[in-house]
Design a protein that fits this description.
By secondary structure, the chain is an all-alpha fold. It has one domain. The protein has helices spanning about 5-20, 40-55, 60-75, 80-100, 120. Helix 1 runs antiparallel to helix 4 (about 80-100), helix 2 (about 40-55) runs antiparallel to helix 3 and helix 3 packs antiparallel against helix 4 (about 80-100). The longest helix has 20 residues, at about 80-100. It is globular and about 40 Å long.
Length: about 140
């Protein structure tokens, strides 16, 4: 029988793999870092989620999950950012599931879960696609 901590360690390891690739130049084109880019807000929200997760400041993450997901839905599909957007959706789903599945919020903070978009929890988190991995990159 698996214990809860073991599952959390595995989930955290997979999230870490996503974090290592999410800002890769192969996925996130340079123009995404320009403030005039439609993708800029998405990149900022995703990077806020990453920073908060690494700091274990879980209480604020649902708000940024909501913002990132809303921005993702508002963006029109562009060939240049499509791989990034697909990876981001999976990454956000991993984070959402982690917060809910491993009860990362204190009892008096649990109301923050309401900000997590249901669509992110409806997705089944997938492992990082192997085609994104480059030998010796990380």
């Amino acid at each position: 029988m698996r214990n809860e901590r073991e599952g959390a360690k595995e989930a955290r390891r997979e999230i870490r793999r996503y974090q290592e690739h999410i800002n890769s130049p192969r996925l996130c084109p340079d123009q995404c870092y320009r403030m005039a880019s439609p993708t800029y807000a998405l990149v900022c929200h995703v990077n806020h989620v990453t920073g908060l997760f690494l700091s274990k400041n879980y209480y604020v993450i649902p708000i940024f999950l909501q913002r990132a997901h809303a921005t993702l839905l508002e963006l029109k599909a562009e060939l240049v950012s499509e791989p990034y957007r697909k990876l981001v959706e999976q990454y956000l789903s991993h984070i959402a599931h982690f917060i809910v599945d491993f009860q990362c919020l204190a009892e008096d903070e649990r109301q923050a879960v309401q900000y997590i978009p249901p669509a992110l929890l409806a997705l089944m988190p997938e492992t990082l696609p192997e085609d994104l991995l480059m030998e010796g990159e990380f």
